[in-house]
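Can anyone check this?
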Amino acid sequence: MRRRDLIKGVAGSAAAWPFAARAQQSVMPTIGFLSARSPAEAASDFNAFRQGLGETGYFEGKNVTIEYRWAEGRYDRLPALVAELIDRQVSVIAATGGEPSPLAAKTATATIPIVFTIGGDPVQSGLVASLNRPGGNLTGTTIMVSELGPKRLDLLRQLVPNAASVGVLANPEFQPASAEVRNLEDAAHTLGIKISALNARTESDIDTAFTTIVQQKADALIVGGDPFLFGQRDQLVRLAARYNVPTIYFLREFVNAGGLLSYGPSIANGYRQAGVYTGRILSGAKPAELPVLRPTSFQLFINLKTAKALGLKIPPALLAIADEVIE
């Protein structure tokens, strides 16, 4: 090759470099949104996630794309769904809807950043090394649903002071469920209350559980924190009304659907914070250096209409501390 042709070739390549770099930079990053829930049921919380994402300057369709994968309460589907996201070479995985999603994602990849929303302790579940310094490729938010069981039992006892037997509805497929039941059993022992654990993996299991509650003559019911049970809140509220069972839930959405009372944090705020973390990671932050976020406030919601239908009078002490009373 002549020297003049070589110089032209090098000059041409050099001129092309900035255009190639700009082309690479113009490719929008992709978020893999993995959820154990279903899209219709989780719509408001997903909007909160997008709100948080927008707070960091990322907007779907403008400068970021989102690939959605929904397990719809079937946790066994999650490994295949996360594998699809990895094949799509997503930049970050938002693993939402409780522990099953991030656990499946963590098993599948140690390199892609993962932002989770869960209900229990991420250290106990093995997701992170510590809350302040997560380490690895995971961080996110917890709404501490599982840890609040004893408080819900106390509130239920105030509402039904003569309760001697309380049922606990839990999904055995949900990892934190066993710890939540144990915490409730310990708290119930000090109050002289008998706890009866009832398993529910499917809609028909929920129907069976309420039949058992009636047969056992349980005085009240606690619905354990679980994405599947959260997705079945209309069914749960309907059955509690049909069988006249005073029931306490873990999130206000149950009370909005007609449930008696709930005690817990805002799940929407947890999703919003996860959106913020996802955006920060897209901008270069490392999951290992982002502390796991926990709620700083918990709210009590009471549905007076439902209480009246159940023949219950809400004690003034409970009304005084309620954050919202639905007439």
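Reply from J.R.: I decoded it. The radius of gyration is 24 Å.
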